[in-house]
Amino acid sequence: MTELTTPFRQRAAAALDDAFLRQALTIATTKFIDLRREAFDEFPEGEALRDRARAIKEATLQRLDHYLGQLIDNIERRGGHVHYADTAADARRIILDIARRTGARLAVKSKSMATEEIELNEALLEAGVTPVETDLGEYIIQLAHEKPSHIIAPAIHKTKGQVAELFAKELKREVAADPEELTRIARVELRDKFLAADLGITGANFAVADTGTVVLVTNEGNGRMVTSLPRVHVAVMGVEKVIPSMSDLVVFLAILAKSATGQKLSSYTTLVQGPRRAGELEGAEEFHLVLLDNGRVKQIGGTLREALACLRCGACLNVCPVYRQIGGHAYGYTYPGPIGILLTAMLHGGEAVTDLAHASSLCGACLDACPVRIDIPRMLIELRNENVEHEVAPRGERLVFRLFARLLTRPRLFRLAASLGRLAQRPFTRGGAIRGLPGLFGEWTRTRDLPPVARQTFTERWASLEREA
Amino acid sequence: MVTCLGDLFYPEVGVRIVRLLRRLGVTVDFPAGQTCCGLPLFNSGYHAEAAEVARRTLPLFRDSQHVVVPSGSCAWMVKHEYPGLMKDSPLRAEAERLASRTYELSQFLVSVLGKTRFSSAVAGRVTYHDSCHLRRGLGESESPRTLLRNLQGAEFVELPASDECCGFGGSFAVRLPEVSSSIVDRKLANVEAAGAACLVACDAGCLMQMGGRLRRRNSPIRAMHLAEVLEADVG
Amino acid sequence: MTDRAAFLDRIRSEMARARGVGGAAQRGELAPRPARPREIAETLRRELAERWRETLEKFRVEFERVAGVYHRVASVDDVPDVIGAIARERDSRRAIAWHPAALGVDWRSALSTHGLTTVAMPAAGVESAVERQALRDLIAAADIGVTGVDLAVAETGSLVLRSGSGRPRSTSLLPPYHVAVFDRHALVESLAQAGIFLEAWHEVSSEGREDASGRGGVINFITGPSRTADIELTLTRGVHGPKEVHAIFVEGGLGG
After folding, report:
1. B130 and B225 share a domain?
2. pLDDT tens digit string along B138-172?
3. ipTM value of the model?
4. Which residues pair with C70 in a beta bridge?
5. Pairing between strand B198-201 and C215-222?
6. Mutating which of C11, C61, C173, C177 best tests the A interface, going by the most A Cβ atoms within 10 A?
7. Chains with 3 or more CB pairs closer than 8 angstroms to A?
8. In chain B, N or C: fewer CB atoms in 10 Å?
9. CATH number of the domain enclosing B219
C-alpha cells in the first residue's frame, strides 16, 4: 500500500511535527471560531441573510452573462476598461501590457487571492516591475518568499520573532520582535511605496453590475491607498464575483466580515467606480478590470458549481479539523482548506486533487460555517467519485475497494471474511486489543488499538437472541 | 439494522439494544443478509458499488415498521443517500420509504417511543461526543443529551467542543493516520478536561477511533455506545 | 486574446449546459430593490428624523465598540474646541479639511486660534500635476483630517463618505487622526437602510442618466480605525490608515 504515502501525506506529517505551527493554528482558528460565533449569536437575522445571500449568488449565476454584460457596460460608461482572461497566462499578459504601456516600475498591491492564483508577482518581477504587497500579512509572506497559509490571515504561521528577523534582513538594521513596533515599521516602509507607486493592483470582493462598482474590503486601509494614490488601478476578479445591485451588496456585507473575523464590518469597505472623475483631486487616471475565467466558467455546468458562490472568508478553514492540524501550506496550492481543495480542482482539474480530495473527514463543519452554505463535503465526495470513474484514483486503492464491495454484496462471503479475520488477528491480539497489524490495517494500528473481531458476531448471536423473545 | 462495525466489533451493543427494545415492548427482528450500509464505499467515491449495496439492503427491511440503527452515520447513509443512489432505479420509492422509517437509536427511543428516563449501567461522570453525521447530517443533538441528562445513577457533563470531529472519517483514518490521530488527541484532551470517566457516542466509527486511541494511551476513560450505558427504563 | 463577445458566449453555452446540474436547481432570488429609491430614501429620512435619539445612541455604542472616539456638541461653533483639544493632546499642528462648501461650514480661523493650521481642500479638480503633487505632500504631512459624513450607520458604527469635489479620498486616510463631523441627517439604523441610500445615489433618471455632478469615483464605509492582527493575532491600530477615528455629533445641525 505504498501509494497511501502521498506527497500530501508527507507534507501533512511535516506540518504535524512543527510545534509552533500547530500552536499558532490552534490559537488562531479557535479565536476566529469564537469571534464568528459571537458575531452571529448577537445577529439573529444572520441565518436568514445567509440563505438570502446564497439565493442571490444562485440567481446571479443563472443570468451570469447578463450581469457581466451590465457590469462591463457600466464600467466602460465610467471611463474604465474591461479585459477578458480565459487563463492565468492571459491575465498576466493583460496586466503586463498595461504596466508596459503606462511605463510602470513600482506596483503596490492590496491583498488578493486572484493575483496569488495567477502568480502575478513572479511575472511582474520578470518584466521589470517591482510588486510590493501592502497587506501586512502578505508583506511578511513576500519578504519570506512564501505563499499565504490562510485566506484572510496569510502569515499566521509566523512568529513575531521570525517577522522581526525578516524585517531586519530587509531593512538591514535591528528590529524588536514586538507586533506594535513591527506594524509601525511596516507603516513607514509601505507609506513611501504607496506614494511612489505608478500601478495599484487589487482583487475584488464583489462587483456591482448595475452601477459598475468594484468593492474592496480591508482592515488596514491598504485597499484605499492602492486605489487612490497610483495613477493606474488594475482590479483582477473572478467572473463569479459579480452581483446585480447595491441592495444585494449590503446583504453580503452583513455576513462577510462576521464570518471572516467576527467584525460587523471590516474597517474599510471601499466602493470604486471607475477612474478619477472631473473635479476630483485623487484617484487613478486609468481604471482596468480584468475578468478572470481560469477554470471557473466550465464549472457553471459542472460538479463544482456551488463553489462559485464562495466569498473567500476563510470560515471553513478555521473550523476544519484537518486544516487546524496542518495549516495551509501542506495543501500545496494557492487556496488551502476545504474550499481550497474544490478551488484547486476548479483551477487545475480533478487529477490535481486525487489525494487532497481525501484530506477531509467529511465532518461537515465547513458546510455549517460557510456564510453561503456551500456543501463542500458533497462536492468532495463527487470529486472522489469522478476520480474513481475516470480511473485517476490509484489502481491499488480501486482494487481494495472493489474487493470490499464484493464482500458487502455477498453476505455469505462477508461471514467467511469475518471468520478469516478472527483467525488472522490472533497473533496480533493482546488483552482484547489488536496492535501492530501489517499493510493497510497497520495505518490504523500505528496510532490506535483496534478491537478484535468478536468471538461471535451479532449475526451469529441472533439465533439465540431471537429465541430469548 | 446492525451494520458492519457493530456486527463485527461491537455485537454486545446490538444485543443490548435488542433486549432494551424488547423490555420497552418492541417486537425486534433482524432480517438476515445484512452486511454494511455502504457508506465507506460511498464516501470514498465508489458510488456504483455503494448503490449495489443499497439495492441488496433495501428489500431486507420491506416488512419492518421502524428501522433502528445504532450508528448515526449509517442512519444518515440510509436516510440521506439511499434515495439519491436509487434515483434511476425501480427501488427509488422503496428507498424513500425506508429513509422515512429509519431512526438512529436515541431518536427512536425519544421521538418514537417517548422514553427518556433510564437507569445507568455506569457510575460517575458521563460526557457525550456529537458524531458529525448525527449532529450535522441528521440535525440530531438533543435526543442523546435528553437520555444522558435524565440518566439515573450517573452525572452528565457537557464536553467542550463536543461537536468537533473525532478524526475518524472512515477511510480518512487510514489514509492520513497521523492527522487523524492528532485530531482525536484534541478531542480526548477535551474529554479529560471535562473530567469524565465515560465518553458516550452514538456511532461505532467514532467509538472505534476514540476508544482505540484511549486504549493505546492506556487511559482509564472508557468509550461507550449509548446502548451500553442505558440499563433499564424507569418511566 | 478573447474579446467580450467570445468570453460571454462561452459563459452562455456553459449556462445552457447547467440546466439540471446539482446546484442549479437551487432557489435563486435577488434582494428586493426599491423601485424609486430616491423617494423611498426621502421618506425614510423623515421617519428616521422622529427617532434620531435612539439611532444616535445605537451608533455611539457600536462606534465605540470599534474603537471610535465619540464626541457630542450643541452647535457647529463648538466643533473647533473639540478638534482643538484633540490636536493639543496629540501635539498636532497641521490639519487638512474638506472644502467648506462640502463641510457646510468653515472652521479654519477658529481652528487657528487653537494653534492648528488648517488647509481646505480645493473645491474643484486640479489640472496641474505639480499643484496636485504639492497638495498630496500636504495631505501626507498632515496630522488631522477633518471630513463630513454622508451616512452614519448605527448597526455597524460605520461612517459612509463619498469622494468628490472638495472631498478628496485621502483626507480620511493619510493623516493619523481622522475627525468626522456629522448631524442627525446622516443617521441611518441599518446596513439595509444604507443600501437604500446607495441605490438612491445611483438612481437613473427617466432620461437614463445618473446624477453624478460633484461626485467622485469612490464611496467608503469606514468602521473604526485602520487595524491589523497579522502578527500573532495581536490587534494593532493605524497600520496604513488612521490610528484614531473621531466622530463629532452636532446636535444643532451642520447647516448647508
Report:
1. yes
2. 999 999 999 999 999 999 999 999 999 999 999 99
3. 0.96
4. C247
5. unpaired
6. C11
7. B, C
8. C
9. 3.40.50
